[in-house]
Amino acid sequence: MKILVCVKQVPATDSRIKPTGDGVGVDLSSVDWIINPYDEFAIEEALQLKAKHDGEVVVVSIGGDKVEDAMRSALALGVDTAEVIKDAGSAASDSLGIAKGLAAIAKRHNPDLILCGKQAVDDDQMAVPAMLAELLDLPQATVVVGMEVAEDGKSAKVDREIEGGHEKIEVTFPAVIATQKGLNEPRYANLKGIMAAKKKKIEVLSAADLGLGEFGSKVEVLAVNPPAEKTGARMIEGDAAAQVTELIKVLHDEEKII
Amino acid sequence: MSSIYDYFNTETFFTEEERMARDAVRDFVGAKILPNIEAHFENRTFPHELTPELGALGVFGSNLPEKYGCAAMSNTAYGLIMQELERGDSGLRSFVSVQGALVMYPIFAYGNEDQRQRWLPGLAQGSLVGAFGLTEPDFGSNPAGMKTHAVQNGDSWTLNGAKMWITNGSVADIALVWAKDDEGKIHGFIVDTKSPGFSAPEMKRKMSLRASVTSELVLQDVVVPETDRLPEAKGLKAALGCLTQARYGIAWGAVGAALACFETAVEYSKTRIQFDRPIGGFQLVQAKLAEMHTEIAKAQLLALRLGQLKDRGEVTFGQVSMAKRNNVAMALDVARSAREILGANGISTEYPIMRHMTNLESVKTYEGTHDIHTLILGQEITGIPAFT
């Protein structure tokens, strides 16, 4: 079974980010980069499937200068090979641009299964897995918290999280499956894996190598705003009854929360 | 890019796999150790259930060769791993130091190939635990005076004596015991702890390294086959060679404990309000933070260079002594300053400060006391030993 895992490198979730000077981007010059946490479930699922069904796990990504670090981390977990499109313009691309790039890589590999995190934690679009399935004309299952691959490795019964409940569906392979927290418990890299990753290959491609044009965007970002600064707390004085009366007044009349 | 926690940007001197090893261990410690370490410290227990996970992570003997089941990482990576373990707890780092530097290393360096194949893979996986028995009740800084006695009878040896302050003693599967023969020559033996006559009562009443098992080893007519004697361990020099390995790790580990205390103090000073402003805005607190910051940066540079020299095979025991002596004393001073900054909160196990501080009292004394390292340096400088 050949499994392709799509990974996005994102700023560490504890990064303190701020808008760029022009107000339409985010200053990423001093952040630490990690593998998108939802993609870790995809990697783990691929490694577990490989252990059960044999085969090969290929991790792919599109990113900038540091994208190989994310690939090396995935290789240290036990992924076999990595392939990336390194393109400085990709950061400004939109979901469709990235999905087209991933589709071009996927066509080189003819995988039995494509796994992605259900969303990236930086821009939260939740769009790439579904677009990728559409571009490749493959069945898709998103927000997956459980999956059981058939013995012959040609289909899977999956458990999707939906509003207020769960949906169980069956997809035939090849398919795109987008993973949600709860699917599995991602493993830690171990030191032997880190040393083994040194010897594994990361193939670096350009957009041109895949016959792709520039990573454009059909979406224009107008502004990026940080959350509003927290304002000072207000202390309400008086005895308990007076405090309650005042609190209700503030919440209802001034803040209009109740 | 430098941060206040790596002010001279030592990061750029580490290879990709060294950084990845450090981060992997930091993640593991954060997820598996830190949530429960205060309870283990208070209850005087070691999280034994994590031993196989530590083995799977690869921290036991991580700088030894792959063919024995180890990760074959650089000595610099080994140092960074120790730093991250001790950022968690000195007891955890001690557990890993003993297994790797004091049990696996001597089997690797002074054992024969049969002994290496027999013991190293299990020790690397954590399916076996080892202890190192050198110190005795009456012989600490002066191990050459040891009383533990080994008598050869044909193909085996009979050991009698007692060892003290032995990390992992009561939980070990094997103990590396150093003993003197009739001619006064010191040998190293791999002793099966299930052997008749061997017992290892746990030492209680510790106010330091409480999340680590410390034991006595009692040997009464324990029979050890000649095949379990380390053939290349000739004299006390071999035992001291192991200690140089362990001290190297401690020089790095102490930086981790210091960083944990410093980070706690920095965060606290920025959020603790007194006199209507964060205490970090007061000059007396800033003076303490600046001193801690500077000493940590110096210790990091010392550890970095020590690692580079060890990776080149050029490090001397004197350099290791200087780094162990400086960095542990530094960490203890940082812990004490952090405790002052946290005020009353500093003594609570809600924060890691007091735990690190009391742990570091042991670290300052074991593996060559601070004063003994002073004398090693004194001898390096003058050529005149001042030990006796």
TrEMBL record, chain A:
Domain Electron transfer flavoprotein alpha/beta-subunit N-terminal positions: 23-214
UniProt-recorded Gene Ontology molecular function terms: electron transfer activity
Keywords associated with the record: Electron transport, Transport
The keyword Ribosomal protein is assigned to this record: no
UniProt-listed Pfam families: ETF (PF01012)
Listed InterPro entries: ET-Flavoprotein_bsu_CS (IPR000049), ETF_a/b_N (IPR014730), ETF_b (IPR012255), ETF_beta_N (IPR033948), Rossmann-like_a/b/a_fold (IPR014729)
Top-level taxon: Bacteria
UniProt similarity note: Belongs to the ETF beta-subunit/FixA family.
Name under which the protein is recorded: Electron transfer flavoprotein subunit beta
Automatic annotation (TrEMBL), chain B:
Key words, A-Z: FAD, Flavoprotein, Oxidoreductase, Transit peptide
GO molecular-function term, one example from the UniProt record: glutaryl-CoA dehydrogenase activity
UniProt-recorded name of the protein: Acyl-CoA dehydrogenase
UniProt domain Acyl-CoA dehydrogenase/oxidase N-terminal: residue ranges: 15-126
Family to which the UniProt record says this protein belongs: Belongs to the acyl-CoA dehydrogenase family.
Signal peptide positions on this chain: none
Record carries keyword Lipid metabolism: no
Every Acyl-CoA oxidase/dehydrogenase middle domain range: 131-222
Cofactor(s) of this protein: FAD
Stored SUPFAM superfamilies: Acyl-CoA dehydrogenase C-terminal domain-like, Acyl-CoA dehydrogenase NM domain-like
Entry keyword annotation includes Zinc: no
Location of the Acyl-CoA dehydrogenase/oxidase C-terminal domain: 234-381
